Amino acid sequence: MTSKGALFPISLTVLAQESVIQKYSNAFFEESNHLCEQISQKIFLETLHE
User: What totals of helices (H) and strands (E) does the chain contain, helices first?
Assistant: First the structure.
């Protein structure tokens, strides 16, 4: 009983940290995808002008 009670808050903390990491990594990937799109669009437009 005591060991279960001690483990419970730890697993909650780990879950909370994982969701925060997930959120930040998702935001990071979205941002980098957006940058990649902008860069490739710019390259595409520049090659059209040549």
Answer: 1, 0
CA dihedral over 38, 43, 47, 50, signed as positive or negative: positive
The CA distance from 42 to 19, in Å, is 35
Amino acid at 46: E
The verdict on pTM exceeding 0.85 is no
Maximum CA extent, the chain: 74
How do the pLDDT tens digits run along the chain, 50 residues long?
455 556 667 777 888 888 888 888 899 999 999 999 999 999 999 998 87
- The residue to which tokens 């957006």 are assigned: 34
Q: Residue 39 corresponds to which tokens in the numbers above?
A: 């860069």
